[in-house]
Amino acid sequence: MPGLLLGDVLPNFEAETTTGRVKLHEYLGDSWGILFSHPRDYTPVCTTELGRVARLSSEFRKRNVKLIALSIDSLEDHHGWSKDILAYNCEKSEGCELPYPIIADSKRELAVALGMLDPIEKDKDGLPLTARCVFVIGPDKRLKLSLLYPATTGRSFDEILRVVDSLQLTAEKRVATPADWKPGDCVMVPPNMSEEEAADLFPAGVFSKELPSGKKYLRYTPDPRDQGECVDSEPSQTEPKPCTSLL
């Protein structure tokens, strides 16, 4: 099945959406973007997901991220279902709109081209539904991250926010983020960076975790956007205190 690989440029497709006809690249402009698909309108898990994205829309805006959803239902269904999503969020549906467009891919053309179809989940006619895909797109229109969930498992969009924070930080700074990292936590120094270069790039200090192998590849430094403490005040301390739970 065709699909996208990390680093691929997203096609500049044109599609009908709940806010009018859009071309992807023009819609995104210089922003980051998230294109996410769902199996079907008027279904329970999808309603909770799109409702959660609506609630988090201000957080995505803070990060200069534009959102756009997709499913294989019609525009008429999208508009009707949007009222249910707003009602699920306890918001008035009359005169209100979701803070992002939903693409109507009723012919499944985009879902096929982007590798979004689920070969297991099928509609009443036996045709495959769209899976729960997430594509995080950089300002260069390249795919930075992709996630694929089955129909039975709803996505955590708080985790997707965390991922965006990591992607944006590591696109700007030569660092990596460890497991469960959050903004303000220590970050990791790439293993291919020399001690001398690391000392120049990270004036707040680089701190190593002592390992049985004697190799110093677990190197931490404070989040360069936060510059908080990464070690105890003891000069001999080499283990980054806020990061010990990650080791």
Give a summary of the structure in a few sentences.
The protein has 247 residues and is of the alpha+beta class.
Walk me through the structure.
With 247 residues, the chain is α+β, with helices and mostly antiparallel strands. It is 26% helix and 21% strand. The chain has 7 helices and 12 strands. The chain has helices at 24-28, 44-55, 57-62, 75-88, 109-113, 157-172, 195-201, and strands spanning 14-17, 20-23, 32-37, 65-71, 102-104, 117-122, 128-130, 132-137, 143-149, 187-188, 207-208, 219-221. The strands form 4 sheets. Strands 5-4-3-8-9 form a 5-stranded mixed sheet. The longest helix is centred in the middle third of the chain and has 16 residues, at 157-172. The two termini are 39 Å apart.
Structural class: alpha+beta
Largest sheet: 5 strands, mixed
Number of beta strands: 12
Low-pLDDT residue intervals, each spanning 5 or more residues: 232-247
Mean pLDDT: 88
Instruction: Quote the distance from N terminus to C terminus.
Output: 39 Å
Strand content: 15-25%
Rg to the nearest angstrom? 21 Å
What is the overall shape? Answer: elongated
Count of separate DSSP helical elements: 7
Q: Which strand order do you get reading across the main beta sheet?
A: 5-4-3-8-9
Q: Helix amount, in percent?
A: 25-40%
One letter per element, helices H and strands E, the order comes to EEHEHHEHEHEEEEHEHEE
